[in-house]
Write a structure and sequence with these properties.
- This protein has 238 residues and is of the alpha/beta class.
- The protein is 33% helix and 22% strand.
- It contains eight helices and nine strands.
- Strands 1, 2, 3, 4, 5, 6, 7, 8 and 9 form a nine-stranded mixed β-sheet that branches.
- Helix 1 packs parallel to helix 2.
- It starts with a strand and ends in a 6-residue tail after the last helix.
- The mean pLDDT is 91.
Length: 238
């Protein structure tokens, strides 16, 4: 694994996404990487903004409307397409979601950890709020000291590296197409395959939870409405 594919899926929320993109492109990483944004049916106006930013900033842009007519979310297609591209180039896959801002050393540190921890399937940077406090989805690690933890709980895809060795063992075409999100399944499958998953609490990234999908803020502000939408509309299947 001597290179990485870094990806960010997004639907609208372009201002936050471009902050994510700038931080990734400004990274001081010794490992070569290709950065791709997957545009999951953003509005025409926001698609034009992404196309303009792609030309100016230098990231690759894949408009999922060119690949499928399936309505958003298309996280499954993103994962399948990204895995195929990574395997073709013997690269690891780093997912950085559009509500996350990495630091200059985030990419290199994740990669370096993967190289040292040969048994690694997944390696995640812990997420923090604007005050540097660990936040969702890693509240279970809130009281931990900075370090590297062999994690049996699921890892989120906020900022997570999937190693080439793991990508070679589990075909994402086997994932359940009835679901919307796959971090739990892929985390568990990594452990089932005999890999170890690591959470780096000494490598914080700034996370604005659900910034790209504001309706999910209801989970905290109005949980009754959130779960009503979740079950009556079939949303947010994990």
């Amino acid at each position: 694994m001597d290179k990485l594919h870094v990806i960010t899926p997004v639907k609208d929320s372009i201002d936050l996404t471009l902050q994510t993109a700038k931080a990734i492109l400004d990274s001081k990483a010794g490992v070569p990487f290709i950065y791709t944004i997957y545009n999951d049916f953003s509005t025409e106006e926001n698609t034009r903004k992404l196309e303009k930013a792609s030309a100016e900033m230098g990231f690759e842009l894949i408009n999922l409307a060119d690949l499928t007519s399936h309505p958003s979310p298309n996280y499954l297609l993103v994962l399948q397409t990204a895995q195929e591209r990574a395997l073709t180039e013997d690269a690891g896959l780093l997912i950085v979601e559009s509500d996350v801002v990495v630091k200059e050393d985030t990419i290199q540190t994740l990669y370096g950890t993967a190289i040292r921890q040969l048994s690694a399937g997944m390696i995640a940077a812990v997420t923090v709020d604007e005050n540097g406090e660990i936040n969702f989805p890693y509240l279970y690690a809130k009281k931990r000291e900075p370090g590297i933890y062999d994690e049996k709980k699921r890892l989120s895809f906020c900022c997570t590296l999937l190693t080439l060795n793991y990508l070679r063992t589990f075909d994402f075409h086997l994932l359940n197409p009835e679901k919307n999100w796959f971090d739990v399944t892929i985390s568990h499958e990594s452990l089932n395959k005999g890999f170890r998953n690591y959470l780096l609490t000494n490598l914080p990234v700034w996370h604005r939870p659900h910034g790209s999908r504001p309706w999910k803020q209801l989970k905290y502000k109005n949980p009754l409405k959130y779960y009503w939408l979740k079950y009556t509309k079939g949303l947010d299947k994990i």
